[in-house]
Every structure is written in C-alpha cells, then in structure tokens.
Prior knowledge:
The chain is an all-alpha fold.
Amino acid sequence: MPRELVRRIEAATPPGRDRALDALRALAILGVVLGHWLVTALVADSGTVHGASPLRYMPELAPVSWVFQTLAVFFLVGGRVAARGHASARARGTTYGQWLGARTARLFGPVAAVLTVWTVVSGALLASGVGLDTLHTLLRLVLSPLWFLLVFAALTAATPLVARLHPLWPFAVVLCVDLYRFGFGGSQEAGWINLAAGWLVPYCLGATWARGSLRGRTTGWALLLGGAAATAGLVLWGGYPASMVGVPGAAVSNLNPPTLAAVTFGLAQCGAALLLLGPLRRVLARPAAWTAVAVVNLSAMTVFLWHQTAMMAVTATGLLAGRLPGLHTAPDGPAWILVRLAWLPVFAAVLLVCGAAFRGYEGRRARGRERAPVAAYGPGPARPAPR
C-alpha cells in the first residue's frame, strides 16, 4: 500500500475515532458482496439469461449464508453512529434537517448514478433485441440492493424517535407477526411489517450501545450464544429455513421479508461484533491496516451498488467465448463452486474499474458543518484534510 496514502489517512484521522466501527461496517459490506457473488448465478440457456442459486441445488451449503449475510452488523453500527451523531448535532445547534441531509447525501448520490446508467443500458438492451425476461433478471439484481438503502434511510430519519426505543419492542413485533403468519395461518403479506421491525432490532441495539448500555464482554457473549441458540431452535424445530438468504423456489425466505430466525441470527452477529471490538482496535492501531479499512469505507456505497453490475459485466463479456463453467452454467454441483471461486478475482477487478469511474458521486457531501473533513462518524470515515 502506498506510504503516502497511509500517511495522509493516518494524519487525517481524529485521535478519538473508534476505528473498529469502520472495520465492522467494511466487513458487513464486503460480506454482502462476496455472498452475492457466491450464491447468485446467471444461467445462459436457449437465448435467455435467468437467475439461479447453488443453495437450491445444494442445500447443504446453507452455512455459507451464515457467514456472508451480515446486514444486522451494518444496522447495529448505523444505529450507534446515527444516535451519537444526532445528539452531537443537537449540541452544536445543527437542525434536524441539516443533520439528516448530511447523513443521507452520500447514500443517494451513487444511487442516482446507478439508475442513470442502467436506464441507458436497459434501453440499449431492448433495442438490441434482448428479451424482457432477461432484462427483468438483470434489473432485479441491480435494483435489489436499493431496498436496503431505503430501509436504512427510513430508520436514519426516525432516529430522534427510536433512539431510546428498547430493542425488545420491535423484537416483540417480529415475534407476533411470525406467530400470526406461521402459527395461525395468517396472511403472508403481514410479514412485510417485519421489513421495518426486523431491522429496527439491531438499529435500536446500536442506539442503546451509543448510550453506553452495552459495556463488557458479557453482553456480547449473551447476544452471541442466546441468538445462536434461538436460531438453531427455530431452524430445527420451528420449521424456518436454514439459509439466511432467499433461495429461489423456497416457500419461505428468512430475508425477504425478515423472519424471527433472521432477527435472532442478527442478534448473534451483533454479539460477535461486540466481542470483536477489542481485537479490531488492536489491529487497526497499525496505520496500514487502518488505511485498508478507510479506503473500503470511502467507497462503501459504490462497492455495494455496483458489485452486481461488475458480475453481470463479466458474465456478458464471457458469453463472447461461449457458455463458461461457473459463469453461465447451472450451479448444480461442487465443481461449479470451485470454478466460481476462480471467477471472484475477475469480478473484483471489474468492480475496481466501476469504483474508479463512479466513486466521485459518493464523495459529494452536503454543504454545511457536516462537510468538515474530520466530522465525527458520517456515512463513512473522515477524508484526508485538503491541502
């Protein structure tokens, strides 16, 4: 890693910044990206492209989803950062509108770029004769990450209302909704209540953390072991799927909308995150390690929004050479997994190109006091101070 970059980022980082929070955020984003690349396949068949998942053909791979479905950690960190940021903004006399505008500006700058590019691409694909089924598959992959940003933005906007809400209240809502859906045969549409309530649990847990109520390793172990035991019980005896991501063709998805099993699994992840804080802080005291985390955070939303596009670009280019294993073939066996792993560096290389082209949209910040290069915990880490 270039020494000058390491020196600049180290110099621009406030002494009191908790680098472990940035590391948790980076791990959460990278977990989602790698998870999508591993469990999402685009199968070329009879002139069309459709989506598939190795989890459908090989359900024994469900533990892979336990490693890479890391959204609860992102909401945990987001709740802590937003709660502390809002309290700090109020103390400085910043209005709610100014604070919220600064918080969301960096989220939606990259979204505008993605939507613009894919509007043009969609028109070009239709004009070239690509079928509607193929276009629908591609757009679903591109646009699916936006649900996460919408929920995250909504919870951020509600921070003044939910910052002191105990996590047990939204947890109780999720429990009641699932009892109604699965225990009493109620409408499955009611599950969409959990889209807000389910992610509100780790978000409120983060706000509780911001108030200093999650101290000591005992809390981390309690969340980890309790959440893991509850999730295991729900999977083994409650009929919930073992996979923590959606599987095409499955009757129930733990993620879309979130189920009680997804929430308890998220609590276990939050416990693990709290236990990792100490080791992460020791590692990130090293300037080179901190620089790597900072670089990921500076492009976090760009990476999140463009990683599926990078995978599809490689897939489309590969079609010029025919149906390539691990790229265009059905994910129906261990051989596909092995070949897919070999494609990951190619996906990453194309994602770097996308990042270089579009990261500037993420760098645009709202005007005002939140533009300060060392402002405390905005959507990403502080930028190096201008020279």
